[in-house]
């Protein structure tokens, strides 16, 4: 590679969309370069607290993920209880309002918080894996792609990174999800995690906790891919089209507000794409020995896509917006930048790399 190409690459690395991989935790230099570049949030002035892409960075992202997913899913437990019962017994729970009324009449206020303990533990573990591994895979795949393709195919990197992270996260979530659904939809099954978990293991063995893993992947992987890719692009568009100053000049409260707004919009798309699999997960975890074919036959194709959908849109939109807000607030509290919001310099790539279609 001639010197002009090298200069081109280093000009690109000056763009805030990229960052030098001086620590080289996942790759080694080649082609004479001393650094790699990758798609990521913009760098901010060092604060002496946590070095970007260090072990401490990924640990902090994991803690932020545990907080944002565990707390928000637990807070949404009443809506989740109603939604699951609407999916399992639509003849009894015909609408959201009637579902709330029936649960209150039959079980009182405590009925709305059934399954809160497996929800808190399960989604805390899932969130830690999801956010921590997303940051890891986003950087890892971008390093593999190199500077030119990391910019050109940034959305594919978001999709691949989030999908990889979710595969791991769902293995952590699945046992708690199995307990949660049964506690919420089978009266008298168990009071919560402490007695519900061993009851499933005694009846069906350890693998009984994982029989919903494949449909859980079917629900969560598309959901998470949509959640991360749409969030990153929506936030980028907000800063590009609606905010008159660069992101680094915006106040932290404004940046966090944009994170919430971007997350809420992304959550609506997430609910739409993952809802059929959500109905499958609820049905399979509630019906011993049931198959996906049984679920489709029982729910019907229309019911698979629509049963419980309005309440899930409200639930997931609020949930996703709050998650990104909490996650970025935690990152800011430990001195890290908020997520997303920088566009690659198209002019540099077009003129200096000679790309006809840079994006």
UniProtKB/TrEMBL annotation:
<dbReference type="GO" id="GO:1990547">
    <property type="term" value="P:mitochondrial phosphate ion transmembrane transport"/>
</dbReference>
<keyword id="KW-0809">Transit peptide</keyword>
<keyword id="KW-0472">Membrane</keyword>
<protein>
    <submittedName>
        <fullName>Mitochondrial phosphate carrier protein 3</fullName>
    </submittedName>
</protein>
<dbReference type="GO" id="GO:0006970">
    <property type="term" value="P:response to osmotic stress"/>
</dbReference>
<dbReference type="InterPro" id="IPR018108">
    <property type="entry name" value="MCP_transmembrane"/>
</dbReference>
<comment type="function">
    <text>Transport of phosphate groups from the cytosol to the mitochondrial matrix. Mediates salt stress tolerance through an ATP-dependent pathway and via modulation of the gibberellin metabolism.</text>
</comment>
<feature type="repeat" description="Solcar">
    <location>
        <begin position="153"/>
        <end position="237"/>
    </location>
</feature>
<keyword id="KW-0677">Repeat</keyword>
<feature type="repeat" description="Solcar">
    <location>
        <begin position="56"/>
        <end position="140"/>
    </location>
</feature>
<comment type="similarity">
    <text>Belongs to the mitochondrial carrier (TC 2.A.29) family.</text>
</comment>
<keyword id="KW-0999">Mitochondrion inner membrane</keyword>
<keyword id="KW-0496">Mitochondrion</keyword>
<keyword id="KW-0813">Transport</keyword>
<dbReference type="GO" id="GO:0005743">
    <property type="term" value="C:mitochondrial inner membrane"/>
</dbReference>
<keyword id="KW-1133">Transmembrane helix</keyword>
<dbReference type="InterPro" id="IPR044677">
    <property type="entry name" value="SLC25A3/Pic2/Mir1-like"/>
</dbReference>
<dbReference type="Pfam" id="PF00153">
    <property type="entry name" value="Mito_carr"/>
</dbReference>
<dbReference type="GO" id="GO:0005315">
    <property type="term" value="F:phosphate transmembrane transporter activity"/>
</dbReference>
<dbReference type="InterPro" id="IPR023395">
    <property type="entry name" value="MCP_dom_sf"/>
</dbReference>
<keyword id="KW-0812">Transmembrane</keyword>
<dbReference type="GO" id="GO:0003729">
    <property type="term" value="F:mRNA binding"/>
</dbReference>
């Amino acid at each position: 590679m001639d010197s002009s190409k090298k200069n081109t690459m280093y000009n690109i690395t000056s763009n805030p969309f990229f960052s030098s991989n001086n620590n080289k935790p996942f790759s080694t230099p080649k082609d004479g370069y001393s650094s790699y570049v990758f798609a990521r949030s913009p760098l901010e002035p060092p604060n002496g607290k946590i070095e970007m892409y260090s072990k401490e960075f990924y640990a902090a992202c994991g803690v932020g993920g545990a907080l944002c997913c565990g707390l928000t899913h637990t807070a949404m437990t009443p809506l989740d209880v109603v939604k699951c019962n609407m999916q399992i017994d639509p003849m009894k729970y015909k609408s959201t309002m009637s579902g709330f009324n029936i649960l209150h009449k039959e079980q009182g206020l405590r009925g709305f918080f059934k399954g809160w303990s497996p929800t808190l533990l399960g989604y805390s573990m899932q969130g830690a894996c999801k956010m921590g591994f997303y940051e890891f895979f986003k950087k890892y795949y971008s390093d593999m792609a190199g500077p030119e393709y990391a910019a050109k195919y940034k959305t594919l990197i978001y999709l691949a990174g989030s999908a990889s992270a979710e595969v791991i996260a769902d293995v952590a979530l699945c046992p708690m999800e199995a307990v949660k659904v049964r506690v919420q939809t089978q009266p008298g099954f168990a009071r919560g995690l402490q007695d519900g978990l061993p009851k499933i293991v005694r009846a069906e063995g350890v693998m009984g906790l994982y029989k919903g893993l494949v449909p859980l992947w079917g629900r969560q992987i598309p959901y998470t891919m949509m959640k991360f890719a749409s969030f990153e692009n929506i936030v980028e568009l907000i800063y590009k089209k609606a905010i008159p100053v660069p992101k680094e000049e915006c106040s932290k409260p404004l940046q966090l507000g944009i994170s919430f707004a971007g997350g809420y919009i992304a959550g609506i798309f997430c609910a739409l794409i993952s809802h059929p699999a959500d109905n499958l997960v609820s049905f399979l975890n509630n019906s011993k020995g049931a198959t996906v074919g049984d679920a489709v036959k029982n729910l019907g194709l229309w019911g698979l896509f629509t049963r419980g959908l309005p309440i899930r849109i409200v639930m997931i939109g609020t949930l996703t917006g709050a998650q990104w807000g909490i996650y970025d607030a935690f990152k800011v509290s430990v001195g890290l930048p908020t997520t997303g919001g920088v566009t690659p310099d198209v002019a540099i790539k077009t003129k200096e790399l000679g790309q006809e279609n840079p994006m």
